[in-house]
Design goal:
Number of strands: 12
Number of helices: 15
Oligomer: single chain
Strand content: 15-25%
Largest sheet: 4 strands, antiparallel
Helix content: 40-55%
Distance between the termini: 32 Å
Number of domains: 3
Length: 351
């Protein structure tokens, strides 16, 4: 269970659904026989096992559990699920797992049009770290009256998850002192659209005409990333590769970045797909292959990911951030997008 090739959700969102259904069972609101009749074997198994927050689980089983809770605990009231989304956002804030949430907590109110779009993209990096199958597009209309986030490939993203996401996103708004509320609809089975109306006022109290005025001052110019270097905390050569493979097997002091990108003998298929999605060349670099710019950017604290644009080099992910990915390609991908945007850098695939 939890293979990345499947349509999956992260354990950090699965855990809440599992705990809630367990409570319904313990309180006698549903019997073991009724659970067996209602849930698939995979969902039933999740109720009995320890849920690891960094692991991927089939989203189908999550949807079964959430739908059951929605019926028993919420009587099919969408606000019941929106409240759960708010609570889930708070829980992730408290755990401090995702840098995007930490930024949302500290961020100043958005006022300029580009800033609004940028913050909406931060939401997509969070969601992308929680669900491995969705695609995202952010749009702002020409009049500054509506901001949209579109979730593509969303046929497996149930209506219950849609309402939970509304609550989650609105809690992010409240964290940034905004009273604006996201709403959502599903114009077709594989597309969910979240809409933030800006007709009356923007985040932080700015009006649409204030956005136009702010734009005349010119936002900070964003630089396009030409290539990325993934720098491993290991030397090149066969001997070093064998040693790193042994460390992976016995889980002893291996390179955290190599654990994400490679299996025992070769690059992970999921990582190959991730590289292709980035839209720029990705170089795998060993400690003894670094040039002067890489050494200066990383301070020789490895592993690290650095971004190159023209003759400039930036540290994108340091070893502490890579360690917090806990071996997850999806988490690494989300953090790449987040920290690139935070530095004013743009990956070609950014919408």
């Amino acid at each position: 269970m939890g293979q990345a090739a499947e349509l999956c959700a992260k354990g950090s969102v699965v855990l809440g659904a599992v705990v809630t259904v367990r409570r319904h069972r313990k309180a006698g609101r549903i019997t073991a026989e009724q659970l067996a009749a209602r849930l698939s074997q995979g969902a039933l198994k999740m109720l009995e096992e320890k849920i690891e927050i960094s692991r991927w689980y089939p989203v189908q089983f999550l949807c079964e559990l959430v739908d059951l809770d929605w019926e028993i605990g919420g009587r099919r009231d969408p606000d019941y699920l929106r409240k759960q989304g708010e609570q889930a956002a708070e829980m992730l804030f408290q755990r401090g797992i995702y840098e995007q949430l930490d930024y949302a907590k500290r961020a100043e109110p958005a006022r300029a049009r580009d800033d609004l779009v940028w913050r909406a993209k931060m939401i997509t990096t969070i969601t992308g770290a929680l669900y491995n199958f969705l695609t995202f597009e952010v749009q702002l209309d020409d009049h500054g009256e509506e901001l949209q986030i579109q979730y593509g490939n969303a046929a497996a993203f149930s209506e219950a998850l849609r309402y939970i996401s509304e609550g989650f996103m609105n809690q992010l708004n409240r964290r940034q002192n905004s009273s604006l509320q996201w709403a959502s609809n599903r114009p077709r089975p594989d597309l969910v659209v979240f809409t933030l109306p800006l007709r009356r006022r923007l985040v932080g109290g700015a009006r649409p005409q204030d956005v136009e005025a702010a734009q005349t001052e010119g936002p900070t110019t964003k630089q396009r990333i030409d290539r990325l270097s993934f720098i491993f905390d290991a030397n090149s050569g066969l001997g070093a590769a064998i040693l790193d493979s042994v460390r992976k097997v016995i889980r002893l002091n291996g390179c955290d970045l190599c654990t994400i990108t490679h299996g025992i003998t070769r690059e992970k298929k999921e990582m190959s797909t991730c590289r292709e999605s980035l839209g720029v060349p990705v170089d795998y670099v060993h400690r003894d292959e670094m040039d002067g710019a890489m050494i200066e950017a990383t301070g020789n604290r490895l592993p690290a990911v650095v971004a190159h644009s023209g003759s400039s080099t930036w540290l994108l992910l340091d070893r502490d951030i890579i360690s917090r990915c806990k071996g997850s390609v999806g988490d690494l991908r989300g953090r790449l997008s987040f920290f690139a945007a935070k530095l004013g850098l743009v990956l070609p695939d950014a919408k």
